[in-house]
């Protein structure tokens, strides 16, 4: 049967958004929130301006300005309402910015009908009313959108320029200086109430545009800083799954180092709960998961405390490495000390379990040292930093042999010899291990010499 388009869409799994997509959505939401915040702050500023005007401007002249303040308040509310209803809120935002720029220009330059002043309209260009344009521009920075800041700057520069050129084009306007700057004739023209100074207009427009560029650059830089911080925190979050906090901080500055595959010697540790399947048979799922998480948490703390890295979790089993991503002078020693510390941790855990009426748990640990391949593997959407090679298989087999030899830890001779090379002071630690001789490793050609931890009675 032929599948329809809708059937195909239903069958196709949803693709989660990428990090860039999530960031764009977050910035877009913040822009919307910034616009609402701008409306709120602007409304508060308009109320303050209205109060101030009532102090400095006599009645009824002030009623003209109060009417426009009311109009600006209504404009902001209508703009927010239209943004919520529209499928293209950015266009409505841009439209209302331009409308507000037109209204502001008109109220700053148009004659007040309630004023009895006989001054010509050209005089209004000398009252520094353009400073309110800069206040309008500053508000745009709260939008968190560099594009809207630039659009605001262009809008107010365009509307202000249109008004100035309209006044400049009036028949009674004086538009040119008399010849000779500083002469009495030039001064008379400058003081003429009908004179329109285009040089002042050029400075005003230049400062408006420069100011909008600076504010837009500041907003862009803030967004870039947020983006870098998100990427850094995401990198730290990914790295913290594998490495101890001190290693995370070092790697977060150069995460690309993990993408370079290389061979190096590392110490590998496998730790597993003995008889976990039987122990969890009668547990409800949530209790079983809670116990596994508790076990993982305790193991991770010990691995990180001894400078190791978590390679992966495999059910109740934990694989850790010592010497990744960068080899150190005590990798094998740290791994061996960590294995003994894990036994102490399990004893402490068992004490708390007994107090809660739960059974004790036992663990088996395998340790080996050898050359492995280190690097990121997996798909682009799901990379995993891991080690690969024969030493990994050997360590897993050694951990399984702890059941046969009734001991909590079996370490390869390669690891014990590396501990001897690293630290003479670790002799007391090595003395806790007994030579098992050569062991046959299932699935591997050739035997391997191994050591067990303590006497039989020391098993956890």
How would the blueprint of this fold be written?
Elements: H1 5-11, H2 19-56, H3 61-85, H4 89-109, H5 131-140, H6 146-168, H7 184-191, H8 198-239, H9 245-252, E1 262-274, H10 276-279, H11 285-305, E2 309-314, E3 317-322, H12 331-355, E4 362-379, E5 382-388, H13 390-404, E6 409-412, H14 413-422, H15 427-430, E7 433-440, E8 447-453
Helix pairs in contact: 2-3, 3-4, 4-6, 5-6, 5-8, 6-8, 8-9, 11-12, 12-14
Explain what the structure shows.
With 460 residues, the protein is an alpha+beta fold. 57% of the residues lie in helices and 15% in strands. It contains 15 helices and 8 strands. The chain has helices at residues 5-11, 19-56, 61-85, 89-109, 131-140, 146-168, 184-191, 198-239, 245-252, 276-279, 285-305, 331-355, 390-404, 413-422, 427-430; strands spanning 262-274, 309-314, 317-322, 362-379, 382-388, 409-412, 433-440, 447-453. Strands 1, 2, 3, 4, 5, 6, 7 and 8 form an 8-stranded mixed sheet that branches. It is elongated and about 110 Å long.
Structural class: alpha+beta
Q: Determine the N-to-C terminus distance.
A: 62 Å
Number of helices: 15
Beta percentage is 15-25%
Q: What would you call the quaternary organization?
A: single chain
Overall 3D form: elongated
The count of strands amounts to 8
Helix share bin: 55-70%
Q: List unreliable stretches of 5+ residues.
A: 1-16, 456-460
- Average predicted local confidence, pLDDT: 79
| Largest pleated sheet | 8 strands, mixed
Order of helices and strands: HHHHHHHHHEHHEEHEEHEHHEE
């Amino acid at each position: 049967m032929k599948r329809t388009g809708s059937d195909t869409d239903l069958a196709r799994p949803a693709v989660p958004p990428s990090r860039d997509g999530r960031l764009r959505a977050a910035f877009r939401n913040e822009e919307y929130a910034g616009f609402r915040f701008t409306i709120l702050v602007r409304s508060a500023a308009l109320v303050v301006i209205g109060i101030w005007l009532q102090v400095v401007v006599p009645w009824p002249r002030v009623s003209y300005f109060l009417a426009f303040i009311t109009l600006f308040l209504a404009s902001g509310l209508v703009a927010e309402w239209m943004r919520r209803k529209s499928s293209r809120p950015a266009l409505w935002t841009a439209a209302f910015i331009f409308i507000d720029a037109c209204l502001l220009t008109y109220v700053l330059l148009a004659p007040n009908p309630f004023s009895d002043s006989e001054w010509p309209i050209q005089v209004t260009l000398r009252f520094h009313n353009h400073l309110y344009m800069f206040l309008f521009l500053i508000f745009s920075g709260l939008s968190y959108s560099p594009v809207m800041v630039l659009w605001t700057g262009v809008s107010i520069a365009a509307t202000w320029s249109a008004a100035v050129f309209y006044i400049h084009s009036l028949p009674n306007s004086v538009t040119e200086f008399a010849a000779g700057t500083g002469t009495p004739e030039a001064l008379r023209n400058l003081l003429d109430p009908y004179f329109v100074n285009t040089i002042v207009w050029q400075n005003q427009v230049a400062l408006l545009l420069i100011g909008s560029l600076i504010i837009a650059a500041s907003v862009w830089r803030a967004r870039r800083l947020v983006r870098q911080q998100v990427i850094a925190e995401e990198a730290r979050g990914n790295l913290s799954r594998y490495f101890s906090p001190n290693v995370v901080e070092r790697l977060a500055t150069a995460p690309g180092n993990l993408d370079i595959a290389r061979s190096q010697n590392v110490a590998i540790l496998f730790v597993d709960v003995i008889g976990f399947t039987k122990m969890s048979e009668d547990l409800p799922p949530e209790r079983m998961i809670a116990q596994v998480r508790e076990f993982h948490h305790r193991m991770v703390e010990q691995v990180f405390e001894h400078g190791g890295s978590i390679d992966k979790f495999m059910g109740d089993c934990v694989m850790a490495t010592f010497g990744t991503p960068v080899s150190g002078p005590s990798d094998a020693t740290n791994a061996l000390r960590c294995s003994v510390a894990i036994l102490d941790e399990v004893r402490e855990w068992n004490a708390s379990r007994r107090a809660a009426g739960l059974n004790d748990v036992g663990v088996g640990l395998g340790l080996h040292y050898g050359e492995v391949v280190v690097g990121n593997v997996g798909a682009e959407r799901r990379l995993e930093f891991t080690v690969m090679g024969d030493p990994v298989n050997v360590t897993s087999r050694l951990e399984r042999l702890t059941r046969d030899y009734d001991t909590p830890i079996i370490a390869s001779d390669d690891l014990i010899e590396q501990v001897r090379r690293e630290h003479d002071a670790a002799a007391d630690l090595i003395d806790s291990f007994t030579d098992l001789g050569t062991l046959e490793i299932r699935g591997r050609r050739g035997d391997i010499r191994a050591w067990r931890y303590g006497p039989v009675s020391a098993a956890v």
